[in-house]
Write a structure and sequence with these properties.
The complex is a heterodimer.
Chain A lengths: L2 E5 L6 H12 L4 E4 L10 E4 L19 H11 L3 E5 L1 H9 L5 E3 L7 E9 L15 E8 L3 E3 L2 H9 L3 E6 L18 E5 L5 E4 L17 H12 L2
Parallel strand pairs in A: 1-2, 1-3, 3-4, 4-11
Antiparallel strand pairs in A: 5-8, 6-7, 6-9, 9-10, 10-11
Chain B lengths: L1 E8 L6 H12 L12 E6 L5 H16 L5 E7 L1
Antiparallel strand pairs in B: 1-2, 1-3
Classes of the chains: A alpha/beta, B alpha+beta.
Keywords (chain B): ATP-binding, Cytoplasm, Ligase, Nucleotide-binding, Purine biosynthesis
Enzyme class (chain B): ligase
GO molecular function (chain B): phosphoribosylformylglycinamidine synthase activity
């Protein structure tokens, strides 16, 4: 799997992502600065977490206008695989590659803690190593992760099986208490209709090694690695 | 020509900032505040001198960048 991580001014989780990708592929992903061009032979583009461009205007709004995102959009149109985590999810939304919006957390608080997510859609390049309904722990750290979309969009996402992950308690039950940022229908992560673009707020890349306190997030990266070795 | 773009959370979209401000006003003893919505104002200094064209340009900017129309509504005023 040939992966590249896009680095904007203010991106700060790219090294964590690099560790996760290297762990499953055995080689370093490319780190691309926002003014560089996207190479043509990539399998996966990752938009990592952080606070690109200081979160000016809206989280991800400035990054969505940066030169490299034109390449990322073209990559998506050609069926490329893209993972957006946290600020990367916000950028995918601002770019229009995923639907909806991410509002300020309902509590108004920056949330830096572990959460639990349930896998709602298995069998995708991002989730094939989980069973549907599997629950895993993940760190999260964001101020604007409150997923919003109108009811028609939410119904479409659910109807087409494009909700990837939902916030639940440890047992996998959807509760308001587990939905710390107030997301619509507890949605933590979504997929594009072709299942090749995935965005989520929590950070599975931060739990991929026993030294980090667990490997709950590893299946996502193993799924990606598998998608590109068997292809 | 100057244009002001008012960006507000859409009706029906949760506005936690407005809610927090409302609570704070309540705490300060301001009674009778039924609701608070918090948005932002963006001032543009445009080279365009034709008011209709300036407004149309500002609205285009709002749609493409200044507002996220999934969650925000906007209104342009020429000053």
């Amino acid at each position: 799997m040939k992966a590249a991580i896009v680095v904007f001014p203010g991106t700060n989780r790219e090294r964590d992502m690099r560790i996760a990708l290297k762990r499953v592929t055995g080689r370093d992903p490319l780190m691309l600065f926002h003014r560089e061009e996207l190479p043509r032979d990539l399998d996966l583009v990752v938009l990592a977490g952080g606070f690109s461009y200081g979160d000016y205007l809206r989280c991800g709004a400035m990054a969505a206008q940066s030169p490299i995102m034109k390449d990322v959009k073209a990559f998506a149109e050609k069926g490329g695989h893209i993972l957006g985590v946290c600020n990367g999810f916000q950028i995918l939304i601002e770019t229009g590659l995923l639907p909806g919006g991410l509002l300020r957390n309902a509590s108004l608080r920056f949330l830096s803690m572990d959460c639990h997510m349930r896998v709602e859609r298995a069998g995708t390049p991002f989730t094939s190593r989980w069973q549907k309904g599997a629950v895993f722990r993940s760190p999260m750290a964001h101020g604007d992760g409150n997923y919003f979309a109108d009811d028609a969009t939410l119904d479409r996402l659910e109807g087409e099986g494009l909700v990837a992950f939902r916030y639940t308690d440890e047992a996998g039950t959807v509760t308001d208490a587990a939905n710390r940022n107030g997301s619509a229908r507890n949605i933590a992560g979504i997929l594009s209709p072709n299942l090749r673009i995935c965005g989520l707020m929590p950070h599975p890349e931060d739990l991929v090694d026993p030294l980090m306190g667990g490997t709950d997030g590893l299946p996502m990266f193993e799924s990606l690695a598998e998608a590109f070795t068997t292809a | 020509m100057k244009a002001r773009v008012y960006v507000m959370p859409k009706a029906g979209v949760l506005d936690p900032q407005g809610k927090a401000i409302s609570h704070a006003l309540d705490g300060l003893g301001f009674a009778g505040v039924n609701d608070v919505r918090a948005g932002k104002v963006i001032e543009l200094d445009l080279a365009e001198t034709d008011p209709a064209k300036a407004k149309a340009a500002a609205e285009d900017m709002a749609r493409k960048l200044l507002a996220n129309t999934v969650i925000e509504s906007f209104r342009v005023e020429l000053a």
